[in-house]
């Protein structure tokens, strides 16, 4: 047998001596064993390799000798030789595999393994099984077979990140290698004399694990896990934890054996379906992560598998595991090669994990270094991921959401378009039933809204956003905050839609969504503040659209709250407050603007100046290049301009114009505020350029308006207002140059804009457009223009009247009504000039008593709503489906402290109740609602006069615009005919007597309020009395005498019965006291109008018509007498007691009167009016003080008894009485209210609204009211009141009874009525009962 060549034999080294030449097999085998022992003792690979080669040579010689002996060879010796040679070759193979092939002289490593395996197989077959050699041969054979099965000789594919450090199947592997290896281990391990080496047990366990991977035999799983676990427990006892001191230093680093064992145990356990095995695998991975040295290839395996473990948990990565999860991802990303196919996936997971950390430091929006890193990683991942990779959807989603949040924080640094791109891609990839779809649609809608909010010009685009939100609500998310964010997104989209459509429905829906978003947002969430800010803006827009001043008031309060949050008024809001703080200047500017508007509508110059001061402070705080400076200065300029018309200077006006024009000139064309500021500036320039006409100014305004019109939606508020001003440009030009083309263009522009408002609710902008169209038609005077101008002018008045009706409270209604009166007179004069008398009546009625009408107009609302098909609103109005509303909005809005701080999560905001506006808007769009807006026609007025037993209703009109035109009376007879009476002596430049009286009255009232000095009182009274005498002389000569001489009234008989409706400054005159004759022909006694005619008054024909439609309660049905409730009028105590005892013995007595049933509080007095719970008093006599109005007629009040110590104020104001009026039943009968209180039927201004305590009681359900025009002495007043009630008891209606009482006082031969108590009759001796200031103070309205 030839000798196999295993390489060159090295020279003999030190060690066991070489056997002598010719040594036999036994000697050679012994020598080989010695060399193996010598080999094991060597430290240097070269020395060990030399010993191994000598051993191998000896064994080859021994084997050759034995095999040459053939049959004569000793079987045991041959078996021993083969065993030792196989063992030696296996040692050489392992050393060569460990990198020592050169030292061992091994050039064919796999050949050595193959030969060794074959020799050990022969040894196992020939060695006795009870010998240690047999056991060794088995385990060595098993190691080689398993090694060949594993194929660690295979080429590395460069990946391996997920497979661990082994691969299956070597180049020379056989199908039975694994089974034979396990069999060899099974046979050999139990026979070993010593404890098996850990490496052997690891190999044994790995072999069983490999077979389990193949066959899934549970016994193999258990056996492998037991073997590997035992080895690992021996290497590192159970419960071991990494030493803290060694963190990062690898002092506890595992060796390769431990690493291989744990890796194999992990892969084995992960293949099991038992949850306990999965937990054990996770524990082993954690130990690997703690012990495998940094840079070891196995760390890729460990990190990758741990990442999978965290991700695959139910519910995803646990919060407590997120730091470890992030750390493993970071390590994976660092360890993987740049070209690895796994790198994009790891980048995607790492980027998503970093993005999730946004907000964990207290902010959900503020960009951090981790945000930046996440953005970079996700972009890299999406660039490398396959199109069908499952991580592409979350990658696009997370990056889009991250960019969305960062853009909210800093719009200039983060691209909203990129966020949109990724969110759109994510939505495309997301299945319809995916739980994240709702969140993605929410984010996409938000990003779209943010993009479009810069300049919304595409209504279809906004509708697509709303469609996204509708789809989102079909797949709602359970993500915290989803509901509030969804409402916020809806609100923003609908707000954009309103900006383009000018639809009140869009704006109302936006407000409803904002309130829902506010309610559902946590109290410490900054979005709660943002929603309040947006609500303020939305309510201001609704004010601009509908004119409800409650909206403006509430918007101002909300914005004040938002700015207060910046100063820490609500300590619960801390996180992300920078989102509000960064806009501090803009917020304070917005608040100043709202406060200015509120002050302007209320005529408060002090309020306007305070807002100007705020704006100047903000202007000084801004850097010259601050982006908010130009819009701020433009708004400041407008304020200065407006203030200049309230007693300001021309310097302020000039500064305002300069600021506005220079600011808009400097604004970039794409600035989001440019259109708004251009529109304001154009309006200001136009206002100052038309009178006197300034061509350059008008051209400048035209240019600005043209830009606005070309930029904004024609249906938007800005577009419509721009159209109105644009029409005014051409109207002003026509008035200046009389070019017909200018008039034509004004008409065309106004008509086109009005066409866009067709079918919409009445609004201030509609009034503006209607007015300019009417003016242009009237000025143009083409065929048919005069009639069209009148018709259009009346339509504008109806529009304005409807806007007043839409007001929820009386104060805003009054402020909205103030502008209508002068316009109504103008349109009425057009009608009178053209002979359209019915049109004149309609115009005058539309400009009169609108606030009173607003308080009483809703009686038939439910029926009208049902006629219109709005059963839902009818039920809500009646209370069936109406949610609770804030009953005292003003108290909440004006209350102390923080509005936000006082409202917990889920609380309702104090909002203006928009039910009235929604209802009247719906009716205004329908034919059924036209009855609410239309005043009574002459025929209806005539019918009312017949019910009142009156002959005519007389409108008294002051002189027109020119000094040469006189005043006019428009008379409507009981037959419904209309005629006019001219007052040639009444000239506008001759009304000084009126102003003198008003000034004397104001002075007297002021003296009475501020001093107790009797001399001062006497002087003021004398001045006032003189002015009153002159006024009555003028009224008789100029108005009442010509009126009485007119054929129209003469036809009514010698004592005509007239109802007077005086307009403008004529409203403050006691016409019944007008001097008709000096009396020279009547025994020297003057003759007053009350002696020749029966006169009553009305705020309007409409109110008279309404009052006459109420049944009148019998006098004895329930009289209430109130006397001296505040304790300041002793005479009123006597008066009340005497009237009650002598005339109404069964009446209810209130006040500071002996025997009274109550103190006479405001609540007790309001109870005496018709309500849902009772008919009210048949007679309500109020003997008390009245306080005249201050800045508003709504502030006029009765001084009653205070409700209690906590409420020392016992005032009952006109405002509160009108509030009561809105709740009364339509058909409720009413009684008579007698106000002998001072100044109960007087107003210092707003004459055409006739808002007094008297008219307020009529609105609240009275059928008649007697009130006083000025302060009267309580003694003589008590006398007159007794006579008045005596006449009532005798059967005279209130108007006639009052006249009879006044005539009795005027009559020098008066007789004391029978039954008058002596205490009352004695008053005749206390003064002159015929004095003008006594009897003329009182007037009657109503029945």
TrEMBL record:
Segments forming domain CHAT: 1033-1342
Superkingdom assignment: Bacteria
Signal sequence, renumbered to the chain: none
Acidic residues bias locations: 152-162
UniProt biased composition (Pro residues): 9-23
Annotated spans, Disordered: 1-35, 150-173
Name under which the protein is recorded: CHAT domain-containing protein
